[in-house]
UniProtKB/TrEMBL annotation:
<protein>
    <recommendedName>
        <fullName>Fizzy-related protein homolog</fullName>
    </recommendedName>
</protein>
<comment type="pathway">
    <text>Protein modification; protein ubiquitination.</text>
</comment>
<keyword id="KW-0131">Cell cycle</keyword>
<dbReference type="InterPro" id="IPR019775">
    <property type="entry name" value="WD40_repeat_CS"/>
</dbReference>
<feature type="repeat" description="WD">
    <location>
        <begin position="433"/>
        <end position="466"/>
    </location>
</feature>
<dbReference type="GO" id="GO:1990757">
    <property type="term" value="F:ubiquitin ligase activator activity"/>
</dbReference>
<feature type="repeat" description="WD">
    <location>
        <begin position="220"/>
        <end position="261"/>
    </location>
</feature>
<comment type="similarity">
    <text>Belongs to the WD repeat CDC20/Fizzy family.</text>
</comment>
<dbReference type="InterPro" id="IPR056150">
    <property type="entry name" value="WD40_CDC20-Fz"/>
</dbReference>
<keyword id="KW-0677">Repeat</keyword>
<dbReference type="GO" id="GO:0005680">
    <property type="term" value="C:anaphase-promoting complex"/>
</dbReference>
<dbReference type="GO" id="GO:1905786">
    <property type="term" value="P:positive regulation of anaphase-promoting complex-dependent catabolic process"/>
</dbReference>
<keyword id="KW-0498">Mitosis</keyword>
<keyword id="KW-0132">Cell division</keyword>
<feature type="repeat" description="WD">
    <location>
        <begin position="303"/>
        <end position="335"/>
    </location>
</feature>
<dbReference type="InterPro" id="IPR015943">
    <property type="entry name" value="WD40/YVTN_repeat-like_dom_sf"/>
</dbReference>
<dbReference type="Pfam" id="PF24807">
    <property type="entry name" value="WD40_CDC20-Fz"/>
</dbReference>
Amino acid sequence: MDQDYERRLLRQINHQNLPAEPRQAKCVSAACSPVSVKSGDRFIPTRAGSNWSINFHYANENCRSPDQSHKAKDASSDSSKDAVAYAALLRNELLGAGIESVPDPHTDERRHAVLSQDSRSLFRYTVHAKGVPFDSDRDVSPYSLSPLSNKSHKLLRSPRKPARKISKIPFKVLDAPELQDDFYLNLVDWSAGNLLSVGLGACVYLWSACTSQVTRLCDLSVDGDSVTSVCWNERGGLVAVGTHKGYVQIWDAAGGRKLTTLEGHSARVGALAWNGEQLSSGSRDRVILQRDIRTPPTAERRLQGHRQEVCGLKWSPDHQHLASGGNDNKLLVWNSSSLLPVQQYSDHLAAVKAIAWSPHQHGLLASGGGTADRCLRFWNTLTGQALQSTDTGSQVCNLAWSKHANELVSTHGYSQNQILVWKYPSLTQVAKLTGHSYRVLYLAVSPDGEAIVTGAGDETLRFWNVFSKTRCTKESKSVLNLFTRIR
């Protein structure tokens, strides 16, 4: 036998008899021969079942900074929406994503929050047993010259939601001489009959939004008194006027005559709230009086719970609960029968004047704090729990919910003097309006729910279009909807 051949054969037998670990270490340290390892010299993974586009999209969302995600939420311009549509079109043609409509980032906030928690890897070399065809339902005409797929055609034909644009310039500005710069007063209110009542010094003026005519309702200078609050009833025929001496006067706006004068308070009445035929008044004497204008003035309910001036009053939409805010930093909730508050919230660090009940969610209450607090807080009055809060950066003077969408507007004082529109529950800012040079202390919503009016110590009233009346309705594809079957 040849000696060289015998030497190579013994070396191969000794190599096969070695333990597993030394052989593995040897193959790692040196290049393994084709005889010992039964595989090719290159590993090319099969990536047919890997959806790289979706995984890469997840990775980009996970790596996005909070500032970038906030800017993405606030993006509502036409250019940004065109970019989203173009990206969806590219994903359809290059990656076979199958997108048929342009996604809306504002409506997909919850989906983005879920995707951000996904920790799947970017590259996965898994092969599905059954592959999905690139475009299984391609029904484009064979005579079509368009290179786009059926999904892309549906994407281009999908209806585009018009971009919401809120004008940052008021559509009307009125002079309001002697409009007081006092945080604890409520001197502006808008009636269901489209009349605006404004307390200027010792007089109450009515401005008609239909005819733009101004009439003087009353003048308290004869009695040496001044106006501290005004409030319309729900039907818009009666207006309550609170005075500096503690009186509450009920006036008939159509006839221009005073119906009655209610006594009981020993200090100025800065907050008023109607509940049907009942009127609640909050005063600097720390007492809330609830009276029915159909009964004698002696039939009244005294609600005592605040330790300082009552500056905010609002009845719930179901007429069952009254929310009151005071200079003692307390927010109290009363029911229609008890003389003691059923709930008390003490999280605010300053006076609570801004109060608003949500017309969309039962029991949802929003409140805002003064200069030392600057926070918007939301409460579930059904369970007594605090839901969420956000720091606005300036004094919160007023709050009002939109009648048509789950949004609310807030007016602010020190130090921004701005008007903010919020989307709930994400609490993203839809718009920021500026123009007042003093604190925006007064706020009222038009009867149609589209416009607001703001007043400030700069003695101006500014009208803004902030809320949209149209709702976003999606087409129902249910077989139970008979209207979709009508041709």
